[in-house]
Each structure stands twice: as C-alpha cells, then as structure tokens.
Design brief:
A hairpin with a 2-residue loop joins strand 1 and strand 2 (16-24). The radius of gyration is 18 Å and the shape is globular. The strands form 3 sheets. It has a 6-stranded antiparallel sheet, with helices on one face. The protein has a 3-stranded antiparallel sheet with strand order 7-9-10. 25% of the residues lie in helices and 25% in strands. It is built from 5 helices and 11 strands; from the N terminus they run H-E-E-E-E-H-E-E-E-H-H-H-E-E-E-E. With 205 residues, it is α+β, with helices and mostly antiparallel strands.
C-alpha cells in the first residue's frame, strides 16, 4: 500500500500530514495523521494492491454513507471522505488502539499467552466493556444496521480520565436492513468474507 501510493511518514495527503502507519486490514490501511489545525486524526485509505476486485473501492463510500448519520458515544463516526490519486479515504477520530491491542499488551505483561480473558481483565473492566459494546450494538440495531464483524480488532479504545471508552468501528461489511423487513440479508457484496472465528454460526452455513 505505502509503496503503491507513495505514502510514507511525513508525507502529505491533501490537508493531512502522515505521522505514523498504524495498521493494515484486508482492503485498507490506517494512518495516524495531523490536520491543518494540528489535530490528530485517523486516516483509513483503500489499498488497491491488496485485491483486484473492483467492488472493494466502493466499500469505503458505502461505509461512510452508512455511518455518517450515526450519533452515539460507542460508535466510531467518520468525519470526512476524500479521494487521493483516485483512491478513497476516510478521516476519523484517532483512538489509542483496539481491544485486540490491549489484550496483547496484557498478555505480554503477564508473560503468559495462555491466560484467559478473566485473568487479564477485572470483573468491573469486563462489565464496562460489555456494557459499552452492547449499547453501541443496540443503537445500531435500532437503526436496522447489522455490523457483521464484531471482534476485538474492531472495538477501539479512547483513553478518558475516568477510564477507557470503547467504540465499535469498521463498517465495511455492515448492512442496513430496510425498515419493516426481517429474515435473511446480504452484505455490501456477497463476495466479502466474514471473520469465521467471530461470525454468527448461521452465516457460515
């Protein structure tokens, strides 16, 4: 991705300076960036070298259209969408990492990868995490949105003085069901793969 678009630390994408490469997903890469007001943001840009399937370029546009109307403290809402060298990108609030990152960090601290989640987090921490994710999912379902890819990598963490705030992110394969309908539904593209370890069993049949 970086080589294909010429992206590198210190480079510029329109109004944003690239500070640090954060992560890479199946169709997009995430950068920590700084805007003209020197506010730190996250930039998610489609990665054309990762797939030759044209539908994936539409995923970011669909994700933006789906999530821009949402207003909830446990949903990561995009701020802007743009195009750089014919490649779409989304600007989002910068988070301090994901739940997966935090799990890994605590495993390293314990020096034991075999410990369970109940040994990594206190009961209060688990309760707060589950409560906030459940509130976010409830809000999505009230708006007929099915996320379809809830997993530790897609639960981001925002550090707050009174404790972490958890937000649900990455709506690339989410689906908004028309009001008044129920039953089966399809994603943005039937070719997009779910994450088997976290997918609902009926979707894998």
């Amino acid at each position: 991705m970086q080589e294909d678009l010429g992206l590198k630390q210190g480079g510029i994408i329109q109004d944003y300076r690239l500070l640090e490469f954060i992560n890479s997903g199946s169709t997009a890469d995430i950068w920590k960036v700084e805007d003209l007001a020197r506010q730190v943001k996250a930039l998610k840009i489609y990665s054309p070298v990762k797939t030759d399937q044209p539908f994936t370029m539409d995923v970011l546009f669909e994700e933006f259209k789906l999530t821009i109307p949402l207003e909830h403290p446990n949903i990561l809402k995009p701020e802007k969408i743009g195009v750089y060298k014919n490649v779409p990108y989304i600007i989002m609030p910068f988070c301090n990492g994901s739940l997966a990152d935090e799990i890994t960090r605590r495993h390293i601290q314990k020096k034991n990868l075999a410990v369970t989640a109940t040994e990594l987090f206190t009961n209060i921490e688990c309760a707060n995490l589950l409560h906030e994710v459940a509130l976010g999912l409830q809000y999505l379902h009230e708006h007929n949105i099915i996320h379809q890819d809830v997993k530790p990598e897609n639960i981001l963490v925002i550090d707050k003085p009174d404790g972490p705030q958890y937000v649900i992110s990455d709506f690339g394969i989410s689906y908004q069901r028309p009001k008044g309908t129920s039953g089966n539904f399809s994603t943005v593209s039937d070719s997009i793969q779910l994450t088997p370890a976290y997918a609902a069993p009926e979707q894998l049949i």
